[in-house]
Amino acid sequence: MERNSEFGGNRKIGLVRGEEFGAKPRVNSREFHSDIPQFDISIILTTHNEARYLSRTLQSIGEAVTYIRPFDVTVEIVVVLDNADTQTSKLIHTHDYQCFDANQIIETHHGAPGLSRNSGISISRGEYILTLDGDDLIGFDFLMRMYFTATSSPRKTIVFPEFCMGFGEICYVYQIFGKNLIRNSLLFDTHPYVARILFPRFLFDHIQNADISVANGYAHEDWHFNSQCIAYGFDIVIASDAVFFYRERKGSMRRLFESQTTGLIPPSPFFNPQTYLRLTWADFTTESHNVVPPFTVRDFLERPGIPDVVHHANQIEPFVSLGILKYQHAFSNFREPSSAARAYFDACKFVAGEKFTEVLIVPFFVRGGAEKYILSLLDVIQKSDPNFQLLVISAHPHAKHEWVDKFPSGTVYLDLQTLGTSQLPLENLEEITLRLLQHIPTINRIFFKNCEFVDSFLRKYIRYIAHLDLNYFHFSDPRVEVGGYMFTNGQSFDLVSEIGSNLNRVISDHKTCFTAFESLIGSAQSPDLEVLYNVCELPEMPLRLQREPTKKLLWAARISEEKRPMLVRKIAQKLSDLGMDICIEAYGSPTYVSMNSEVFDGAIGLNYRGPFNGFSTLPIDNYDALVYTTAYDGLPNVVLEALAFGMPVIAPDVGGISEVVTADTGFLLQDAASEEVLANSFVEAIEVLYDDWSAAVTRGNAGRNLIAEQHSAQRHEARVKAIFSLPSVSDNDNLHISSGAINAN
Hints:
Number of domains: 3
Largest sheet: 8 strands, parallel
Oligomer: single chain
Strand content: 15-25%
Radius of gyration: 34 Å
Helix content: 25-40%
Shape: elongated
CATH superfamily of the largest domain: Spore Coat Polysaccharide Biosynthesis Protein SpsA, Chain A
CATH class of the largest domain: Alpha Beta
């Protein structure tokens, strides 16, 4: 192309064919940028409130432009005034730009450095783009070194300076190595490069800076931009001895983002599981022999030509001084990949190429009522969606995951604790999970079962996955007795209060818990509250209560403080003290190390019979009723199954128990903080049970009828389909669901 005659001279600048972007189709640079460039370099200078620094910045850039002038390189400057203050705007508009071949000024109101650069680049006319900020300085030979490195490299190359010298509040020097030494996996959780880069203009038509602002919670537009470039196959080349000077100051955009965001970059093709595996495969499957000696300030000071470059900068900005730097520190971007980067690599091996439609995030998976509830729900969704595929992510350490074989066919169970080479902290596991959720495009719904990991993850990152269908299971919050009062440890309640407006729905196995949600949170701030009763099939052979009572009662639960095994001991003791010839037989497995079956040792009128594998495996006909002593619960599966067998239930009024245990189906007791008081209530109910044994048959039948009506497989399936608007839902089942309303039909 002809150099524009108004700038004098005649020079040819050729456009060459672009190379492939990774596995993308072959790309021609003309396809990206149809306008023939008028200049060799366009400097994009973004400014905000840097009036006090701009004179020094522009003088520094001017020296670099003057230095490259004898090489017949043309340079335009595009200044972006983004929400600029009056002084900054005035200085930019009145500056003498005679050392440049052309200048343009554009005013924007982005409040985001990446978008500001985009605006500047969009009107630029150079073959290469160089990005700078309003408080930067550059070495006098910076442009020359960067430009000639670019023109002597393949077209699909990004050029970085070799050195960044920080000055101001912090003084240091940072050496930058290229892809020949720096592993791609470093970009998983750190940025080994910088924002001051030179790249061919055609790149911008394919890759642009993301919209990163405090409002959307992301940060580091340069890290994100560079990660995209690497994902699309651009090479990174270093301009030897090129130095730029970075001002460390309070009030900078970088400091603002670091203080008010999580510090994460937006989704990037770099994190796509298949792409990440391709880019980092060598990092984790081959042994690296690269060794780089520690970089020191002395190395920098003794590099030929560096003192001259810094001295020239010192004449413009006295705070840029080797006299200060020599007492400070130096470092480089050479390092080993983190354990988190390795763990994400391992995770990608599990999920790459899969087309998951649903994700379930749990602490771990064991045999239990909540787990059965979740499995039943997923089974209905699977039958309604031919593309169904489930990814289960478990986050907490657990010795053995149970019931994994009960997940639908094709499920991938990803135990975060097994990833990488060492146990990772919670924040690393959260970031790995977020990147998976953001970069598996087929995901439709996510289900969360409350635990420490889920609580922390949702509070921190829910805004980044709000475009997905988010479902939170709420069964109960723990309750403990202190000082004669029962206190609810409302972590799950508080989570819904804090982030509920970003959830699509909260799903529970009972409606009682939602009363507090409506009255204490308010419907305007609540997500949809969906009651889905668990499915419970009636056994073919119910309990035969027409017989004489066996004088044996059943206790079946996990052995944990939550289930109050000490209370059942007290009940048995009181029955014995009253001379009632009644025995309680207990079944259950210990859940926590702090409590095991020894809690039953030496009890009077109480026998421990060992663990059980499902209610139906128990000798049901041996017992007259179920004694359930829980301190807190949802709508426990063991209670439903006892009623399904026609067995009366004696239980306190906690959680959703009152929705199935009534005077018609058993004995609902007023809960009490005092185990002494509660034990007396149990004993009174047991006395009534045996004083009017003929009523036990009536209660048993009523229980079976309630389960058949409220917990049938047909009703459960219709309700799941209505909640999620799944196909094959009849008009009667297609419920209107309004925000904050409790839906249980």
